[in-house]
């Protein structure tokens, strides 16, 4: 029987730990778990922790961590995804699936055709939401490390600071991914709904990016990262 997994945003070790309020509420009020029930925790360090509930109240849940062991090995391919901001649930979908596919970092990107506008408090809330999407994906897929979700950036700023051995911008008229040699680190730039403009593609190329295509069909903005990461992991990663 697979144990329920929970991310704890604090260092864990053998012994008793009081869980944060959000996890405590979910365990006691939603899952209705009871004292003695087993669960598995991870703190993003790459370690996993087997534990059992020793105190379950309405507002307070305490666990006894009994065992620590190495978690799921990460892909040898470090991938930074620059994802053009999109509307509705498309961004959530891209972050969730990219996390399941082993992405290391994700940066939401403001581009010419981006229809999403985020400022101040709303931007902070969206960033917290995206990070929770990534955490939930890790809890489900078994990853022991949570990918870094960076605050949104203008495309020009992201291009200047992105470091990777191989940098690719997806474009329908380009060479296939398989034409490139195996890198140790990879950066993907994917446009929003409507894609990147020709000027933005040229800007990316001037910044050291190579144009690459995934096939003959034009993919939606939330589909492209799923396919791109799956192909990259098959060619150079852990698939």
From TrEMBL:
Its EC number is 2.1.1.193. Its main location: cytoplasm. GO terms for molecular function: rRNA (uridine-N3-)-methyltransferase activity. Residues 19-65 form the Ribosomal RNA small subunit methyltransferase E PUA-like domain. The keyword Ribonucleoprotein does not apply. InterPro entries: Alpha/beta_knot_MTases, PUA-like_sf, RsmE, RsmE_MTase_dom, RsmE_PUA-like, tRNA_m1G_MTases_N. It comes from Pseudomonas jessenii. It catalyses: uridine(1498) in 16S rRNA + S-adenosyl-L-methionine = N(3)-methyluridine(1498) in 16S rRNA + S-adenosyl-L-homocysteine + H(+). This is Ribosomal RNA small subunit methyltransferase E. It holds the Pfam family Methyltrans_RNA.
């Amino acid at each position: 029987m697979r144990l329920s997994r929970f991310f704890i945003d604090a260092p864990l070790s053998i012994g008793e730990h009081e869980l944060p309020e959000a996890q405590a509420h979910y365990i006691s009020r939603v899952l209705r778990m009871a004292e003695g029930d087993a669960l598995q925790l991870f703190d993003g360090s790459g370690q996993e922790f087997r534990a059992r509930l020793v105190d379950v109240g309405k507002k307070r849940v305490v666990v006894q961590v009994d065992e620590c062991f190495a978690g799921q090995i990460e892909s040898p391919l470090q991938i930074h995804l620059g994802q053009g901001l999109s509307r509705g649930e498309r961004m959530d979908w891209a972050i969730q699936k990219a996390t399941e596919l082993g992405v290391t970092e994700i940066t939401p990107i403001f581009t010419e055709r981006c229809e999403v506008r985020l400022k101040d408090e709303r931007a902070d809330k969206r960033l917290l939401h995206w990070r929770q999407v990534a955490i939930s994906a890790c809890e489900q897929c078994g990853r022991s490390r949570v990918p870094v979700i960076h605050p949104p950036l203008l495309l020009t700023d992201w291009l200047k600071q992105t470091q990777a051995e191989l940098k690719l911008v997806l474009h329908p008229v380009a060479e296939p991914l398989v034409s490139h040699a195996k890198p140790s680190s990879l950066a993907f730039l994917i446009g929003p709904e409507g894609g990147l403009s020709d000027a933005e593609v040229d800007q990316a190329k001037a910044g050291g990016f190579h144009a690459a295509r995934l096939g003959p069909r034009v993919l939606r903005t939330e589909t492209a990262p799923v396919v791109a990461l799956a192909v990259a992991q098959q060619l150079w990663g852990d698939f």
